[in-house]
Every structure is written in C-alpha cells, then in structure tokens.
Amino acid sequence: MIKVGIVGGTGYTGVELLRLLAMHSEVRVQMVTSRGEAGIKVADMFPNLRGFIDLPFTEPEPEQLAKCDVVFFATPNGTAMQSVPDLLKMGVRVIDLAADFRLKETATWEEWYKVKHACPDLLTDAVYGLPEVNRTAIATARLVANPGCYATAVQLGFIPLLEAGVVDPKSLIADVKSGVSGAGRKAEVGTLMGETGESFKAYNVAGHRHLPEIIQGLNPLSPVPVQLTFVPHLLPMIRGIHATLYATLYEDSALHLQNIFEQRYKDEPFVDVLPAGSHPETRSVRGANVCRIAVHRPQGGNVVVVLAVIDNLVKGAAGQAVQNMNIMCGLAESTGLKIVGLLP
Ligand SMILES: NC(=O)C1=CN([C@@H]2O[C@H](COP(=O)(O)OP(=O)(O)OC[C@H]3O[C@@H](n4cnc5c(N)ncnc54)[C@H](OP(=O)(O)O)[C@@H]3O)[C@@H](O)[C@H]2O)C=CC1
Ligand SMILES: CC(=O)N[C@@H](CCC(=O)OP(=O)(O)O)C(=O)O
C-alpha cells in the first residue's frame, strides 16, 4: 500500500483528494493536515467521509510527513515551496496542487505570483503533471506540479490543433468559465451566493496567472511562440469549467478536424472526444476525472471552435493529482479513477 499524506485537508481540493483516495485500492491515507482544525476528526468536519477516513487532522509536522511515500500539497500558492526541498531530501515524492512549481522560469513565476521563490532550483526539476503530454517524465519524477484548472482545459483543447499544425498559433482565443469552487473554500465576499448567484462576469481580463502556464505548455508544440487571449469568467455554479476555444485555420478545406482529435486522444483514458456536432456539458463530468471535448467548424469557415469541459476539482485538480500519483507509483493509470459523472 502507498502511504499518503495530504497537507491542507480542509480546502476543496484537499477534501476532494480524500474522497478519491478513500476509494483507491492501493493507498492508505495516513496523515491529513490542518493547522486550524488539528485534533478534530476529518469525518466530523466532512460527514461524506464517515466510514471511509478515520483520522484526525494534524499539524503539518515534517517528521510525520517524512513517513509517507507520497505527499500531496493542497495548499495556497507559496506554501509547498517552503517545505518541499526537505521532504525531497528525506525521499518523499511530492505532488503540489498549487502553482509553486508549474513555471520553469523563476522571473516569470515571481512576476505572476508576486513573491520571491523559496527554491528556484527545483523549478527545472519539477515535472508539469499533464499526463497527456508528460506521462514518461511523470513516471520517474520526484516532484510533480499539478496543472491549474483553466490551464488543463485550455491545453487539452488546443494541443491536437497545434501538434497537427493546422492553426495559426498567433490566433488563439480561450473564453473560459468556471464554477465558484475554483476560488477555494476560504471565505471571500466575491464568492458569496449573494454576489455570484444569478450573475455572470469576466475577471482578470488584463492577465490571469494561468496565462504564462498555458503558453509555456503550448509553445513547444508550435514553430513560433503562440499568442493567446485568455479571458476567465465566474459562473453561478459550484463545480465545472467550460472552455470555448477559437483559432484560425490555415487554408485547407479538406481538413478532418474530428479525425485529428480522435487520433490524438484515442489511447487517453481521461480525454473523451465526443461525436462531431456535440456540445459537452459541465454536468457530464461533475465528480469525474475526465475532459470531454468537441470540435466544430462553424459554416465550414476558417475558424475552428473547440469545446472542452472538466470538473475543476477533479481533472482540474485532485483527480489529475491521483492520476499523476498512479503514474509515479507504477500503478494502472485509472486505478481509483473510474468514476461516472453525477448527472443531473
Ligand atoms: N479550487 C480549485 O478548483 C483548484 C485549486 N487549485 C489549487 O489547489 C490549492 C488548494 O486549493 P483549495 O483546496 O481551493 O484551497 P483552500 O484555500 O480552500 O485550502 C487551503 C488548505 O491549505 C491549508 N493551509 C493554508 N495555509 C497553509 C500553510 N501555510 N501550511 C500548511 N497548510 C496550509 C489550509 O488549512 P489550515 O490553514 O488549517 O492549515 C487548508 O486546508 C490552491 O493552491 C489552489 O490554487 C488547483 C486547481 C483547482
Ligand atoms: C473561479 C476561480 O477563482 N478560479 C481560480 C483558479 C483556480 C485554479 O486552478 O487555480 P490555481 O491552482 O492556479 O490557484 C482563479 O481564477 O484564481
């Protein structure tokens, strides 16, 4: 059994990790931390875990974490980087659900995250945990940077088009909507029901921190640096991300876009290319570790429209983290992740 620790067990991604790992046949969760709730039983705070997780929250003590094989950080940005170097030295493998190790260049990371990086040397060592691109490197990684939720949906949608070289890499537009659980569990006026219910708005149009992450992921697939306009929106729902992606096609009316997507993802257990003409719904992936994708070419014109949906807490966070753990530990990639979405 793989001994697992979770730092930050009271946030939405932490409790989602617990939900998934409680049903994982090869894992024993041996430690769940919360400084604020230390001593309280996990299942007293999250009754959905009654009968599955019989542990109290504890303080994130390094000596205890060092007894785990794998430690997940489900903590705010800037937290994991304080203790990851020591954990790695003690032989623990780490999966960070936050952004501390997602960017390769220290200056870019510090520009977007507004603090000095505590261990910039590890940025090059860390493997970006998008299995559909980096599966081989993830298998031997000591430190995996789990992708951001928007970044997952946008990259999975654009990858087949850029790899096939059928779109102008300077024409990319990502119009993406997220449910409010993407903002985490902390109390904030902006995510109150009274602020988000029956309303809809864009935010961070001038620049969102997932922009450099997406560009870093897509650039290697393009002969020239990609140009991407990324506009996130907040939807009055709890879970789910819907990405509507646009790109300009190079002239070629004989392109088989559907075929390009089906071929690219034919062996991927967690990317589902829908039949031509489909409109994926966020509710079809609620609770499931899957990205559902459809590709369209409206009126046979020169613009391709890709629709990609994920559950921000599953394929966009905890599910992808478990997928990465499975790969790192040599398990079948879908162990514990064969979950049907909750519909309705
Ligand atoms: N919500 C989402 O859809 C997604 C979130 N993410 C990322 O995952 C991470 C966690 O998100 P979310 O679950 O929403 O987070 P929350 O902010 O809701 O939860 C944070 C957790 O971290 C703990 N924590 C906070 N500060 C520290 C610290 N200094 N040391 C140890 N533990 C700490 C908290 O417990 P306590 O303070 O009691 O110790 C709490 O359990 C974030 O970086 C987020 O950006 C990634 C993808 C999607
Ligand atoms: C709706 C909402 O607020 N979403 C979050 C993104 C959540 C996420 O995945 O971001 P990180 O892991 O990079 O923090 C935001 O825009 O900040």
Question: What does this protein structure show overall?
Answer:
By secondary structure, the chain is α/β, with parallel strands linked by helices. The chain has two domains: 2-125, 3-Layer(aba) Sandwich (Rossmann fold), CATH 3.40.50; 150-312, Dihydrodipicolinate Reductase, domain 2 (2-Layer Sandwich). The chain is 30% helix and 20% strand. The protein is built from twelve helices and 14 strands. The protein has helices at 12-22, 42-45, 62-65, 80-89, 106-113, 121-125, 131-139, 149-164, 193-196, 210-218, 257-264, 314-328, and strands at 2-7, 27-33, 57-58, 70-73, 93-96, 127-128, 143-145, 172-178, 201-202, 228-234, 241-248, 271-273, 291-296, 303-310. A seven-stranded parallel sheet has the order 3-2-1-4-5-7-6, sandwiched between helices. A seven-stranded mixed sheet has the order 9-10-8-11-14-13-12. α1 packs across α12 (314-328), α7 runs parallel beside α12 and α8 (149-164) runs parallel beside α10 (210-218). N-acetyl-L-glutamyl 5-phosphate binds at residues 77, 98-99, 148-149, 178, 182-183, 210, 232, 234.
What letter string, H or E per element, gives the SSE order? EHEHEHEHEHHEHEHEHEHEEHEEEH
Which runs of at least 5 residues are low in confidence (pLDDT < 50)?
none
Q: Outline, from the CA principal axes?
A: globular
CATH topology of the largest domain, anyone?
A: Dihydrodipicolinate Reductase, domain 2
Name the hetero compounds present.
Answer: NADPH dihydro-nicotinamide-adenine-dinucleotide phosphate, N-acetyl-L-glutamyl 5-phosphate
Give the helix/strand class.
alpha/beta
Count of all domains: 2
Q: Average pLDDT across residues?
A: 97
Strand order of the largest sheet: 3-2-1-4-5-7-6
Give the strand content: 15-25%
Describe the main β-sheet briefly: 7 strands, parallel
Assign a percent range to the helix content: 25-40%
What is the end-to-end distance? 35 Å
CATH architecture of the largest domain: 2-Layer Sandwich
Q: How many extended strands?
A: 14
From the alpha carbons, calculate the radius of gyration and give it in angstroms.
20 Å
Enzyme class: oxidoreductase
Function: Catalyzes the NADPH-dependent reduction of N-acetyl-5-glutamyl phosphate to yield N-acetyl-L-glutamate 5-semialdehyde.
InterPro entries: AGPR, AGPR_AS, AGPR_dimerisation_dom, AGPR_type-1, NAD(P)-bd_dom_sf, Semialdehyde_DH_NAD-bd
Family: Belongs to the NAGSA dehydrogenase family. Type 1 subfamily.
